[in-house]
Design goal:
Length: 282
């Protein structure tokens, strides 16, 4: 009989948020695969638990090499517990590769639900939560970051991102450029920790605030694109949408046609707006 892979959510800040089952799973697993064994030690000490099983590291640098080893353990009947530094394994953390390999071998995969920075930030943001999408970390390079943002420029669902503190100002500035400086957002910092802070406001203002320097673990929540009715989209917005599509690789003719459909206006209206904007900058 094959074993079981258990994905265990761990506290994102306050250790008191640890799910009750976590201690039992840590104590009883045959193998505990941890993103950082030193942080695992602090976690087990805080919970008053002594793992009986073998402890191995499982992080981005050795994930590909260690996955087959853990799959063999599972096929041999072991109960393998996977924990990352904070939050749910495989959500912008190691885990997906192991889950996919286990599923391929018909190994049972289950989870110990736990704290989530994505859902916590979303709930605290004050922005719509009925529909949202998680975009993870944006690319580090400026051009790639802008390109990725342009892909979701017209997304109406609330967007959730992770970001490093030293890149936050550049990211917010890029968001203001692509989404518009007045688009609402919330920067959630150090969630559930001593210095927890949620900074809400327009992207332009938040970019200026972040330029002064921000520390801690960051989750950014951004309002989705507004749904505008017929006649509500002005020429400036029409031109911006065409530009976003062109910069994403579309030819101008196709971009104008697509924006006309989105805005529910004749193609000639969009075309005239683009030409007028071009003449104004000539």
């Amino acid at each position: 009989m094959t074993g079981t892979l258990v994905l265990a959510g761990t506290p994102i800040g306050d250790i008191a948020d640890a799910p009750p089952r976590l201690a039992a799973e840590l104590a009883g697993a045959d193998v505990v695969a941890a993103e950082d064994t030193r942080r695992l030690r602090r976690l087990t000490q805080g919970l008053g638990v002594t793992p009986k099983g073998r402890i191995v590291s499982y992080f981005e640098g050795n994930e590909a090499a260690r996955t087959p080893e853990l799959v063999e353990e599972l096929l041999g009947g072991a109960r393998v517990l996977l924990v990352t530094d904070a939050g749910m394994p495989s959500v912008s953390d190691p885990g997906y590769r192991l889950v996919a390999a286990a599923v391929e071998k018909d190994v049972r995969v289950t989870a110990v639900p736990g704290p989530s920075a994505v859902l916590t930030a979303l709930a605290l943001s004050g922005l719509p939560v009925d529909r949202f999408c998680f975009e993870g970390f944006l690319p580090r390079k400026g051009g790639e970051r802008l390109s990725r943002l342009r892909e979701v420029a017209e997304e109406r669902r609330t967007l959730v991102y992770f970001e490093a503190p030293h890149r936050l100002d550049d990211t917010l500035a890029a968001m203001a450029e692509v989404f518009g400086a007045e688009r609402r957002a919330a920067v959630c910092r150090e969630l559930t920790k001593t210095y927890e802070e949620v900074k809400r406001g327009a992207l332009g203002a938040l970019a200026e605030w972040a330029a002064e320097g921000v520390r801690g673990e960051i989750t950014v929540v951004v309002e989705g694109a507004p749904e505008k009715g017929v006649g509500e989209i002005d020429d400036v917005e029409l031109v911006r949408r065409v530009r976003v599509r062109e910069e994403a690789g579309e030819r101008r003719k196709e971009a104008i046609a697509a924006v006309a459909v989105e805005a529910q206006v004749p193609k000639r209206v969009v075309f005239d707006a683009v030409v007028a904007a071009k003449n104004a900058t000539a």
